[in-house]
Specification:
With about 220 residues, the chain is an alpha+beta fold. The protein is built from 2 helices and 9 strands, in the order H-E-E-E-E-E-E-E-E-E-H. It has an 8-stranded antiparallel β-barrel with strand order 1-2-3-4-5-7-8-9.
């Protein structure tokens, strides 16, 4: 990437980041809340497994990895059921003395639809993806997704097969996230996720993606 192209990409990312920040601020003014986005959710506790070291990003995530994990399933706009919404699954775990966050939103799995948000009526009624790419240790881009585990009970728990792929490439099994529903589970108003500050494993966030996302994250935390 040339210097002029890099500068142009930076300007575009900064402009788009400012727009996203303004949108989050507008939502917060219309509906004051500690969380302008994803205000309604439920927190589950369970286990994250990354066990296929041949999948893109697996080694950077620490495969083979088995760690306790926290997952929050939420509605992006906070619309009441049964209205459709874009559901999110945020995952946090601790490893190597630091916090790791992975954020997934309702998407498709196709070469184009993996980058498109998809509203649904049920929280885990379809695939979820990272939308924006990570970079592996060699600087190659990859995306992460999750799909409901076949045959998993629909009891409100989280049971997902994790996948990874190169942008536009085929999906590979990466691991599994299992956080069962338990009596008394609810939301945690103090739990906040940030996949830029707490990028998972040894993956990296492209500079343009960080500039695009950070302003809205900061505005949301201020809300």
């Amino acid at each position: 990437m040339t210097v002029s192209t890099t500068a142009r990409t930076t300007r575009v990312a900064d402009a788009a980041g400012a727009v996203l920040r303004a949108l989050v601020g507008a939502v917060d003014r219309l509906r004051p809340s500690p969380r302008p986005l994803h205000p309604r959710g439920v927190v589950r506790h369970g286990t994250l497994l990354v066990d296929d070291d041949g999948a893109p990003g697996a080694l950077e995530l620490g495969a083979p990895l088995v760690v306790p994990a926290v997952a929050r399933v939420s509605r992006a706009a906070g619309l009441p059921a049964p209205l459709p919404d874009v559901f999110g699954v945020a995952v946090r775990w601790e490893a190597d003395g630091r916090t790791h966050d992975l954020l997934l939103s309702g998407t498709g799995l196709g070469r184009l639809t993996r980058f498109v948000l998809v509203p649904r009526r049920r929280p885990l009624g379809g695939p979820h993806g990272t939308l924006m790419p990570f970079l592996d240790s060699e600087g190659r881009a990859l995306v992460v997704a999750a799909v409901p585990t076949p045959g998993a009970p629909r009891d409100g728990g989280v049971d997902l097969v994790l996948l990874s792929a190169r942008p536009g490439g085929r999906w590979h099994r990466l691991g599994r996230l299992v956080c069962p529903a338990r009596p008394g589970d609810g939301d945690d108003p103090h739990l906040r996720f940030d996949p830029v500050r707490h990028v998972p494993g040894a993956l990296r966030v492209p500079g343009w993606a960080a500039r695009l996302r950070l302003p809205s994250y900061r505005r949301a935390r201020a809300g």
